[in-house]
Amino acid sequence: MRKLRHPLPVRLFHWLLTPTMLIELATGFYLTNPSRRLGLPNVRSARKIHFVTGSLLTALFAAYLYGRNKTEIVPERRDLGSHLWSFLAYELFLTPKKPEFPKYNPGQKLLFTLWLFLIPFVLLLGWLLYFPQFFQKWIRLFGGLNNVRRLVYLASVLMTASIAGHVYFALTSSVAHLRSIFTGRT
Amino acid sequence: MRTKTRRRGLARTGRAPQTQETGNGRPEKHPLVWLETNTCHGDILSLLNSYHPDFGTLTQELLEIYFTNTLMAAHGSQAIEVLEKIRLERSGEYILVVEGTVPTAAGGRYAFIGLRDGKPWTALDAVVELAAGAKHVVAVGSCATWGLPYGAHPNPTGSKPVSAVVDRPVINVPGCPAHPDWITGTLAHLVWYGVPELDAENRPVVFYGETIHNLCQRRHYFESGLFARKIGEPWCLYKIGCKGPVTYADCPSRQWCGEHLNWPVGANTPCTGCASPEFLERTAPFFEHLPDVHLPGVRVTANRVGLAGGLITALGIGLHLAGNLFTGRLQKEWKKGLGKTGKTFRLKRK
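Structure tokens for the assembled complex are given below, as produced in the milestone run.
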């Protein structure tokens, strides 16, 4: 019997989050620089898709915060010390020996913790842009509407880069772990 | 005939309530001080271009302008005496309008109003002292309301908006310059009805209640994805830096050039967001969609940051993948993973 790595709710959340996040990022980049090459028919449709998906993402993230055990994704002291060095040594090809970690390696933990802050940050800014009159005082805290747009764009670039890294490592580092996000077991 | 035209013009701004009359049957005018500090004088010139009511009607029927250094005939000590007199004798009655930023560095000595008792009277002291006795304080123009462009980095004069130097609420009427209607409308409202409804930035909602983007005649081009690629094209100017989506003002419906003839987008140039609190530093570059990103020692466009982010990610993944292939790790991992699957499959068949 293979070991259960990802229970059903976690997998369900992951596979709901994946298309939601991809649609949100794609429509977001389209709204920043509308181009027919991105395949969306027009800005009106892109805006609708973006904000419907944004609402879904907000609900998903709220459910995640309520249900998920955050302790296993937040780095511990050793993840920032000895574990991190052994992880980096292996990933930078300084040692051939693959280190073993309880569930997530320090890189994954840092990435998931980054998302734990980045996703609500972008969601908050997105809602500020959606209700600019209602949130005028909040918008002032972030340096104004145009600055909020810039922050959303830069955060989305970071989000996209981190997702690309996540997908790459998921596909290359461990087939067993990759399988577990589909079947639950390694 | 001239008077009739003026009266009709005044009526078009709204129904004026009963005003107190002086002994000679003429309505009592409200005292006003128009103080110009660090400014290009664009807002007082904008006021002179007002039509409904025009400047003449405004001064004959609504406001008694005691001090404005661009228009008044008096100068030197004579002018300063008027200012001092109204400050001391009509405290709590006059409206103070400030146009321009207030320099605060070097004790405010970057701008003088004039000489008082033989000593320079700084704009900073004048604004603070006059605001203390004013019935209402109105900051007109984006310099006075947001502090820019004089307060832009590195801001050697320590220029600040009026709201940052006075300890009382300030009504903001931004714009570069402010539209004549925004100025006269706000002043008329103050005289007739008191303080108008203001938003979180203390701007009158009647003029700044909606974004330019939402009022724009070219909004349907935006929704349909018809964008101008260069200035002069008659489509939505969003992609070449129009700040309409982030600027609250009624320019599209009110329009400019005297009798509401045209406005920047109507002339095929993007809105620069001059009425926005972010004007000028965070609405520039004017022809870029997003403001620049300031990195240590370098300033780059947001698009280049996005492009660099993509390239760095692709390069990092590419190099790591090459390392994985070169060392045989990837082949080994996939062989191990797929082999395990095959073994499991065989075990199940047994």
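Residues 6 and 57 of chain B are 6 Å apart (CA to CA). Chain B has two domains: 2-16+25-208, 217-291. Further analysis is deferred to the final report.
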